[in-house]
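Here is one chain, start to finish.
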Amino acid sequence: MRINYMNDNESSNLARTIRKYREARKMTMKQLSIKSGIKLSTIKKYETDNRNPKLEQLEKIAAALDVSVFEFLDIEVKSISDIISLVNKMNNATEIEWDIDNEKVSISFKNEDINNSLKDYALDYRCKDINIENESSDSEATLTRLMLINNSLK
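Its structure:
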């Protein structure tokens, strides 16, 4: 598994992601600056793609926007081991319920808020899959809405 947070190819996506969550929270750059403790001029540089934030800065921005820092990271999952590692992290953070049969393994969470958010995402994803003419920005809006529901896990 590889995590990038300052790759030149990803920086414009990072700038858009910061702006997307700031606007979804109806915050100005100045409000984000105050809440994150990062200078306004620096926030402007991040959002205009003139500067790449360090991980510590991303953590401050994520906390100010009340989203996970993972929203700003590009995580490449390349192997079964990577997937097992991610499932293990989820299992450590919240209790997973396992349903195992001969053909497949299904997981759900004891936390109903997580299950409901995942259900909303899955239904939206399935709908977008059927209606190919819908733009990806629609599914991004749903994901953004779900990510802004930042409930504790346990």
